[in-house]
Write a structure and sequence with these properties.
There is one protein chain. By secondary structure, the chain is of the alpha+beta class. It folds into two domains: 33 residues, no CATH class; 104 residues, Beta-Lactamase. Helices cover 27% and strands 36% of the residues. The protein has four helices and six strands. Strands 3-2-1-6-5-4 form a six-stranded antiparallel β-sheet, with helices on one face. β1 and β2 form a beta hairpin.
Length: 139
């Protein structure tokens, strides 16, 4: 095999052409990419209107019982609920389109820093349009 062909195959493998996706050299990075993330829709008061837990492939990994309750009272493992509630209230009152935070969470698997993305959206299903907050938590 010529060195040109070998170099081309190596470049294609690094780009993910043979594996169906990018090559991940760090097994811990790969495992963390499959950890579940949360997608939630919250009312401006923090009430969970919709919740879904998915892995990086978009597959549901568990059902949730958060809908209808106060996110900050029901979501398990948040280390500093008062500070996170302040972040949320600050976002709601600011009228920013989006904001990002790092929230620490402790579960049976350990303590992790999680990227939290808040995005403003609007519910137009009723006759009255209301503001909602899309909250995404990534491990």
């Amino acid at each position: 095999m010529s060195s040109t062909i070998a170099n081309n195959r190596k470049a294609e493998a690094q780009a993910g052409a043979f594996s169906g996706g990018p090559v991940v050299s760090d097994p811990a990075e790969y495992r963390s990419s499959l950890l579940p993330s949360w997608i939630l829709e919250l009312g401006e008061d923090g009430t969970v209107l919709y919740s879904r837990r998915v892995n990086s492939l978009g597959e549901d990994v568990s059902s949730t019982d958060l809908d209808g309750g106060d996110f900050f009272e029901r979501f398990i493992g948040l280390n500093d609920i008062a500070a996170y509630r302040r972040d949320f209230r600050s976002f709601v009152t600011s009228r920013q389109a989006a904001a990002s935070y790092m929230w620490r969470r402790t579960t049976e698997a350990g303590t992790t820093d999680n990227r939290v993305q808040l995005t403003r959206a609007y519910d137009t299903h009723d006759t009255v349009t209301r503001s909602v907050v899309m909250l995404e938590i990534r491990n």
